[in-house]
Write a structure and sequence with these properties.
Elements lengths: L1 H11 L6 H27 L1 H12 E6 L6 E2 L5 E13 L1 H6 L6 H11 L3 H7 L8 E7 L1 H10 L4 E11 L6 H4 L1 E2 L5 E3 H5 L1 H4 L4 E7 L5 E8 L7 E2 L4 H17 L4 E8 L5 E7 L12 H4 L2 H4 L10 H10 L7 E3 L4 E4 L2 E4 L6 E3 H6 L3 H9 L3 H10 L17 E2 L7 H8 L4 E2 L2 H12 L3 E2 L14 E2 L3 H12 L19 E11 L2 E14 L6 E8 L12 H15 L11 H12 L1
Parallel strand pairs: 2-10
Antiparallel strand pairs: 1-8, 2-3, 3-4, 3-5, 6-7, 8-9, 11-12, 11-23, 13-16, 14-15, 17-18, 19-20, 21-22, 22-23
Protein name: Peptidoglycan D,D-transpeptidase FtsI
EC number: 3.4.16.4
InterPro entries: Beta-lactam/transpept (IPR050515), Beta-lactam/transpept-like (IPR012338), FtsI_transpept (IPR037532), PBP_dimer (IPR005311), PBP_dimer_sf (IPR036138), PCN-bd_Tpept (IPR001460)
Length: 581
């Protein structure tokens, strides 16, 4: 009996390991194994992923804006500076998460201060999936403060800079301008964009859950843009622009250009065009106003190129300074075509050829020298090719060099037809004559080292040409209106018809290129009046008096002493002969 009870007790005792227990243990062990494996994977195999996720939540990079370099004139006057402004941008997702545009009054205030329509703003911010939309760039600090006080959720401000041009339209074509991102797109701003543009700084920080900065992880100092000093003298630039603008309006011209060059350094002291534009507000500026006509637009120089024929003949030796030419009867046929003067000037010396602007005289001189020697003069004097400024858009002129030249083509070339040049190229030609025949590249940047001059023509002949050009502005010359009280002036007019399809039209280009003071030339000024529309359409009546006013003001601004007391023997003789006749 007792044996059966013991056996029953043994049967009722629970088993040590039941299947449910095994299942639980297996699950627990499996979970812990998975956790350990995951931790090992994250910590050992791919630790960077977790670190990156943490950094995405806590790390931020703050960019420090680098201001663009300042552009100044030769005397340090600021012509282009960057002023602090702010950009207004929005996060549409945040806006829609905070009630969208329900606060109509504050959103309308934003639209009013920005001068925009509210529907225009709301339509740009209507997509809640977008995270960044500019509302308006480059707003003033006062306007930005007002927007900040509106406290619109999802609307933020960021620092920017905007270019400001203190001289406005006076220097617009030279300096150019930048776009909304402060990148140069015209003029000096574009040419020296890399130099003027700074390197932004950055600061990497760590912030806590509330967005507060708790640690600076890395800081890189930015570098401000480098400043740039031009050769331009803003005083002369402003004077030249005022006089040119007055002339274009007075003579009802289509446009005009003027250039002032320092003879001994090649520095461009002024380069102006009319019409111009305001670089601080280009909202309604047409494209034709933006181009720098002094370097882009070409024209046939006409009689202003005649000194080259005389110098070519002198340099080659086919004539001497005292030789004369018979221009009778005032016309001649060359290869079936006609070359003529306005009247029969009879026998002329070389000074008379320049003073009377004789086509007959320059044609005979051009045909007296070998073709290659004559044509090379146009290259040597800078009427073909660039001037050395490297300005964007500069034309090298239009000159169809060919292996064979007819005598008539050479003759017309001698009085400035058959090639086209820019105002700046013509200024370089006259700067060579004024600098005793030494050629220097023209330059716009003051910091550049001076170049070695290249001798183009004998100093003796260059000085003689200056004396000949002085007679042009005397009574009986073609430009007495170019005279300046107290100073001896030399120069040459050029009145050329504008080329059209199939020949020449009825529109004129008026040029006067001159230098002063004659006793020791310091400045060259070239004035171009394009398509004068009034009764006055000769250079002596339009470009010459404009030259006189620009040159007179520039000489006084630079404190260059008058030289009218010293009269050259050649000028005195020629002037006396004229008054006696």
């Amino acid at each position: 009996m007792s044996a059966r009870r013991n056996h029953a007790k043994q049967n009722l005792r629970p088993r040590l390991v039941e299947w449910r227990f095994i299942l639980v243990i297996t699950l627990v062990v499996g979970v812990f194994a998975a956790l350990v494996a995951r931790a090992a994977y994250i910590q050992v195999i791919e630790p960077d992923s977790l670190i990156q996720q943490g950094d995405n939540r806590t790390k931020r990079v703050r960019i420090t804006h680098a201001h663009r370099g300042i552009i100044t004139d030769r005397n340090g006057e600021e012509l282009a500076v960057s002023i602090p402004v702010r950009a207004i941008y929005a996060d549409p997702k945040v806006i829609h998460a905070n009630g969208g545009f329900s606060d109509h009054r504050r959103w309308q205030a934003l639209a009013d201060v920005l001068g925009q329509e509210l529907p225009q703003i709301t339509s740009r911010l209507g997509n809640p999936k977008k995270r960044f939309v500019y509302i308006q760039r480059q707003v003033s600090m006062a306007m930005a403060d007002y927007v900040d006080k509106l406290d619109l959720p999802g609307v933020y401000l960021r620092d920017e800079s905007r270019r400001y041009y203190s001289a406005g339209e006076t220097t617009a074509h030279v300096i150019g301008f930048t776009d909304v991102d402060d990148k140069g797109i015209e003029g000096i701003e574009r040419l020296y964009d890399d130099w003027l543009t700074g390197t932004p700084g950055s600061r990497q920080i760590r912030r806590d859950a509330k967005g507060r900065q708790v640690e600076i992880l890395e800081q890189i100092e930015g570098q401000a843009g480098k400043d740039l000093q031009l050769t331009i003298d803003q005083r002369i630039q402003a004077l030249a622009y005022k006089e040119l603008k007055l002339a274009v309006g007075t003579y009802k011209a289509a446009s005009g250009s003027a250039v002032v060059v320092d003879v001994h350094s090649g520095d461009i002291l002024a380069m102006v065009n009319s019409p111009s534009f305001n670089p601080n507000d280009r909202s309604n500026v047409s494209a034709h106003r933006i181009r720098n006509r002094a370097i882009t637009d070409t024209f046939e120089p006409g009689s202003s190129a005649k000194p080259l024929a005389v110098l070519a003949a002198l340099e080659f030796g086919t004539v001497d300074l005292n030789d004369t030419l018979d221009t009778s009867p005032g016309w001649m046929r060359i290869g079936g075509s006609m070359v003529r003067d306005g009247k029969n000037h009879g026998v002329l010396d070389l000074t008379g050829v320049i003073r009377k602007s004789s086509n007959m005289g320059t044609s005979k001189l051009a045909l007296s020298v070998p073709k290659n020697h004559f044509i090379d003069n146009y290259y040597q004097f800078g009427l073909v090719g660039d001037t050395g400024t490297n300005l964007i858009g500069e034309s090298g002129g239009i000159f169809h060099d060919r292996h064979r030249w007819s005598d008539f083509e050479l003759a017309t070339l001698s009085f400035g037809y058959g090639l086209s040049v820019t105002t700046l190229q013509l200024a370089r030609m006259y700067s060579i004559i004024a600098n005793d025949g030494d050629k220097l590249p023209l330059r716009m940047i003051k910091s550049q080292a001076p170049a070695q001059p290249e001798s183009v023509v004998s100093p003796h002949y260059a000085r003689a040409m200056v004396q000949m050009l002085e007679t042009v502005v005397m009574d009986g010359g073609t430009a007495p209106k170019a005279q300046i009280h107290g100073y001896r002036v030399a120069g040459k007019t050029g009145t050329s018809r504008k080329a059209v399809a199939g020949g020449y039209g009825e529109e004129y280009v008026n040029i006067f290129a001159g230098l002063a003071p004659v006793s020791n030339p310091e400045l060259v000024v070239v004035v171009l009046i394009n398509e004068p529309g009034g009764d006055l359409y000769y250079s002596g009546d339009t470009a010459a008096p404009t030259f006189s006013r620009i040159m007179s003001g520039a000489l006084q601004m630079l404190n260059i002493p008058p030289d009218d007391k010293a009269v050259s023997s050649l000028a005195a003789i020629v002037g006396g002969q004229h008054h006696d006749s």
